[in-house]
Amino acid sequence: MRVKDVKKVVLAYSGGLDTSVILKWLQSTYRCEVVTFTADLGQGEELGPARDKALLLGIKPENIYIDDLRETFVKDFVFPMFRANALYEGMYLLGTSIARPLISQRQIEIAEAVGADAVAHGATGKGNDQVRFELSYYALKPDIKIIAPWREWDLTSRTRLIEFAEEHQIPISKDKRGEAPFSVDANLLHSSSEGKILEDPWDAPDEMVWQRTISPVDAPDKVTEITIEFERGDAVGINGERLSPATLLTKLNALGKENGIGRLDLVENRFVGMKSRGCYETPGGTILYVAHRAMESITLDREAAHLKDSLMPRYAEVIYNGFWFAPERRMLQAMIDESQKSVTGTVRLKLYKGNTIVTGRQSPNSLYSMKHVTFEEDQGAYDQFDAQGFIKLNALRLRLGAMAGRKGGAL
Amino acid sequence: MRVKDVKKVVLAYSGGLDTSVILKWLQSTYRCEVVTFTADLGQGEELGPARDKALLLGIKPENIYIDDLRETFVKDFVFPMFRANALYEGMYLLGTSIARPLISQRQIEIAEAVGADAVAHGATGKGNDQVRFELSYYALKPDIKIIAPWREWDLTSRTRLIEFAEEHQIPISKDKRGEAPFSVDANLLHSSSEGKILEDPWDAPDEMVWQRTISPVDAPDKVTEITIEFERGDAVGINGERLSPATLLTKLNALGKENGIGRLDLVENRFVGMKSRGCYETPGGTILYVAHRAMESITLDREAAHLKDSLMPRYAEVIYNGFWFAPERRMLQAMIDESQKSVTGTVRLKLYKGNTIVTGRQSPNSLYSMKHVTFEEDQGAYDQFDAQGFIKLNALRLRLGAMAGRKGGAL
Amino acid sequence: MRVKDVKKVVLAYSGGLDTSVILKWLQSTYRCEVVTFTADLGQGEELGPARDKALLLGIKPENIYIDDLRETFVKDFVFPMFRANALYEGMYLLGTSIARPLISQRQIEIAEAVGADAVAHGATGKGNDQVRFELSYYALKPDIKIIAPWREWDLTSRTRLIEFAEEHQIPISKDKRGEAPFSVDANLLHSSSEGKILEDPWDAPDEMVWQRTISPVDAPDKVTEITIEFERGDAVGINGERLSPATLLTKLNALGKENGIGRLDLVENRFVGMKSRGCYETPGGTILYVAHRAMESITLDREAAHLKDSLMPRYAEVIYNGFWFAPERRMLQAMIDESQKSVTGTVRLKLYKGNTIVTGRQSPNSLYSMKHVTFEEDQGAYDQFDAQGFIKLNALRLRLGAMAGRKGGAL
Amino acid sequence: MRVKDVKKVVLAYSGGLDTSVILKWLQSTYRCEVVTFTADLGQGEELGPARDKALLLGIKPENIYIDDLRETFVKDFVFPMFRANALYEGMYLLGTSIARPLISQRQIEIAEAVGADAVAHGATGKGNDQVRFELSYYALKPDIKIIAPWREWDLTSRTRLIEFAEEHQIPISKDKRGEAPFSVDANLLHSSSEGKILEDPWDAPDEMVWQRTISPVDAPDKVTEITIEFERGDAVGINGERLSPATLLTKLNALGKENGIGRLDLVENRFVGMKSRGCYETPGGTILYVAHRAMESITLDREAAHLKDSLMPRYAEVIYNGFWFAPERRMLQAMIDESQKSVTGTVRLKLYKGNTIVTGRQSPNSLYSMKHVTFEEDQGAYDQFDAQGFIKLNALRLRLGAMAGRKGGAL
């Protein structure tokens, strides 16, 4: 980005050291007006200090945007994603990935409201988050200018960053002077840790890495039993109490945390081409995932369920790679949402020392037919003799193959 | 099957009451010679009594086949399937499904050896197992005659079955006189329970249902740490000790059992069109699944892994539905096996009260590059500036879409 | 079906010899009231004779249903399917498959209107049509009784059928006395021929097989140029003239016929497990298929198009197998329809002796950007340097693989 | 690339003006030794002049590599791809895409043989070919340096290019002085034209664009009938005469050309994010595609065929995007090749004015069973009554759904 080109920039601002340095660096490099945007996505930090620090760094009050986006986050991003049972690479509940499009969306809204011609973010040039932010920016405002300081500046070591902060009178809290032992991202769905002491995938993560959950070892020795109520694919209550999306997820997080649920230590493949290791905590989301699958197990038709499952890896990849605001995500969502109309009912779970155990599911839309499945006399609900024709026609192509010399499906 | 048509039949014979009744029923109905085949697939029962009982029921010694198939079962069926990380409907490790093709294969081999023109099995007309047996029979010997007594006879109640047994001097152990509270299938990979007291999916399963695993609640309060060694996608050792496939799985089963690992209470969709509820215990398999995914996480290329993941649901469905000996399974296997050539190395795990926790993975074939991923100075291994072009071209279609009025990928 | 069980049956009645025999056979076998349903799906036969014949065979006037379903057929069945570019086994435009669910739907509606407890159709036990009819019946009315005479009766040879007709005073037109040389099905979308002289797949079909199209060899030596206008994925006009769905397809059929377009001689895989050979004529549909793909080529986002393409084989299989009224078809349709919102514009085509040649496409929603693609100076629309970063990050996993000894992506 | 860094570069050299300018530009900019590589892939140009021109431009004889790669091209690249029936975006036979990996592979082999540290190509920064070349280079030699002059230099207009050529005594043939009306790429599989006069997708291509095929309008009025023989998925003969891969494709090209077969005017989606319009001629490939599908139609099992079809779009995308030398392509190829073992036999075709018409197929491995499919009495090969059970169990989930209120599969 040529430095003369930018008039006004909206910065995704956390109030921390890094984005404070970015703020000053934008002012000094681009000589443009800076608007800060700080979102509460449930990361567990107060936002007041971010406002104070922005003021201290010379941002005009009318240029400071602070929004509580927790309900929107869960309702319009987390829940649609959970309808798909999305797991990236079979394991990861996409806690960081799903937050980026919402931040980007709000940032672009602010840019349009204040007439800014640029946006900036604090993600590095090695990670997925830069991709997620920038794909969303471009998809929502194709002519936006994007500043990614970590790809542009020369503050490439901690020492230089601290020096820059000192030169520009940016307050540095004592615990930020030293190198953090790993890097953290958090929101209402999850907390992730990566880098530094976690870089060797053979080394077990230190217990201090885990910040959102008690260790299964330390979790209480007693079982907690809960029910989760669903309507059309979304959780709407716990133990019979109706809750808003963010309140519900907050409560599930507390239940998960206490019971040591939702830790994941994973080596994953980044969109930018390298492998990385992350330690993720998704306490409430892990419970929700298990419960949602159980709810679907009695309310979804078999082929509806299998079709969803066959596209889940693609859907998860789309979100992981940052294509939330892309036609393919919308098409997949349309298909998934169509399937969820009947996913209504109640699931009962036991939570215990890292385990989320389904013990019951019921639904007004249940497709489970005791009459058909029973080992007892079924009053003619099912004619066992039909199975013979079913098998014989399913076998026909295999028999014809075997007759043609391809026994056992040999090719 | 017309009764005059059958000369000699090979029966999959467990030695239990049901297959003993079938044995006699075959003799009295078809008036044909019966050959019994009993396999040790690690179900945990001695086979001596099966031989004795067959003799007692009048089977000639040369018509009694008893085989220990445990090594073949794990090496040629369980391990290939685990290379695919196969989970049916996101959850089920396919423990029953994977045993059926091996039993069928051996049964057909015996039929050909003894010149039998028919085979018989003891699966009911409502379940998946009849399909799995019969598809395999037909695929391996397309002109085989198949007798499925449960679909043919009139012994449709427990009372009638017992009466028939008594009429035919079939010994009935005391505990078999009453109705079993649920039905069990077991082999070296897993144990399943279903039916009767498990039929209502809202009722939690009674603790007595679980036979292969200690409850997580009762499992010891200390962590067990192990390593599993892999070569080309298959586990070959535990804690550095090289083990044969069946020995290895037996040891993992013991470790899983002690630590309360591998229970699953699931409502699933049967191939014959109804939903059913099963309680599965796959102690060793659960550990193996987690370990194999971790091994792949550092040894598989991203797109190789995603391609596998995208086809896993199909592969699992193929096996669940009974198409092991079908061209599509062989094609999928060829693709999967191709990917496993590099899946060699060691995974370290903690086992604790139902949890299988990965704490480390290493491989001579690792694709994880600390040099590239590091938060530290990377000596030019990765040029962060490349990310800009990467993002801009990935965003181009989204920008063109937005310019054409489709902001955010709207359709 | 036990003969006493049926009170009133709705028969899909063509007025031809076969369904007339079925009509009488139903009366004499089930001794039930018969309601006839004859649909005009554009098969090109007048429906008056069907009414007369039904009366002659003793059907009460109020029990004779004759409906012109051509507009519904094209609008609600053909067009949704063409949005998907559905080709079964890469070739077949599904002309027979797509008609069956509509016939079934109307038949069930009539059954409910007249209080019938059963339906009957004239499809044989070897083909796909029985499956398509019956799956639709069951999906729409799960307790319906189904009579499939060809699977039940003993009129298994032509001679016996003629005898039965004569015994029951069913008039037989002279040309029906002999064996037809092949069997035909037709509707507004296509005509199919199969069986008898077509059974050997090495024999070329006789020219008399083709009834809907002139041979390319006989088609005129001059090119016909047309435009087709689309709105939201559906054709709405030809040469600028707005036409109703059935009128439009009728006109395309005429254009295709004259120009020798839309013949297909195919060996395909039936759902019931065998291969069969069919000769299909889909003159208008073939033009429509080519035009629709061309319309999408400038209006669909790349990933939207690829996602559709990747699911097309599944969608085509679902329809071929008879699962139009199934959740998976509805989910796929929701996904496809979502993508079609922008598929509006005009395609220009040349028709010539079997060829359908696209020569132009334009759209108010075009995503084709001359500014970006031009070989000329592009005023900075596209920065060629971005390609370097794009390639380098796409290559990173391949380079890491090669460094780990897997050159060229070797596994 | 910093100019001092390169010692010796292998240039993909056609002998034309553009790559001659690149040759000189490399010498003058990088001051490195240049090795030229010119491949005969059947593009239809003599290679002698390329050698002369390289000598004239000062390349040492031992640095001039000229290879006839036609047989390798067809045998190891074209044929494996045709086993998959690969069509990009439903239409394009990938003629350009499939040539790039072979050129790259040979270029890297030469680089290793001569100790070069860099490679260079003449593809622009807007197209797919740069991606295909460079991904292949990196996959085969991860530390290779890549020079892409069109992304680096300032010769951005035709005028500047000509000036540079004149300054450096590069001979310019008269017809190259002016702007070419479109850009051409050719090899044994196809010829493509794009750019300039073809840029408006509403304008029909001028007849002069087509260079490889006679227009269907001008093609002879008589039908040409041929047979193609296949072994294990690959064509091995025409009209009973066994031919080497390149000879066979050359002959099919002649047949296609004469009969006006293989033209395609397409708007496609490039990997770099924009749409472009190409006019492709694939005369022999089009015939081969139709014939291969017909050969598969009687030799492939249904599910084998459907599995292939479902992955074809992904396979085509992989090749289009340049990932021939990637693990996912090798995995897909393993799966596809597994299926081709039985694809042996003969297909008979009529070629006529743009049409490729299948009229017969036969195989020693045929799965087509006349005995089963016949409309005549089938001697019990198929029991029509089996269809009832087959349908009833396939319908069961739909019936259960309808009973639960979801008629017709409604969601």
Explain what this protein looks like in three dimensions.
4 copies of one chain form a homotetramer. The first copy, chain A, is an alpha/beta fold and 411 residues long. The first copy, chain A, is built from 14 helices and 14 strands. In chain A, 41% of the residues lie in helices and 19% in strands. A 5-stranded parallel β-sheet of chain A has the order 3-2-1-4-5, with helices on both faces. A 5-stranded antiparallel β-sheet of chain A has the order 10-9-8-13-14. In chain A, strands 6-7-12-11 form a 4-stranded antiparallel β-sheet, with no helix packed on it. In chain A, strand 6 and strand 7 form a beta hairpin. In chain A, helix 3 crosses helix 9, helix 9 crosses helix 10 and helix 11 packs antiparallel against helix 12. The radius of gyration of chain A is 25 Å and the shape is elongated. The model of chain A has no long low-confidence stretch (mean pLDDT 95).
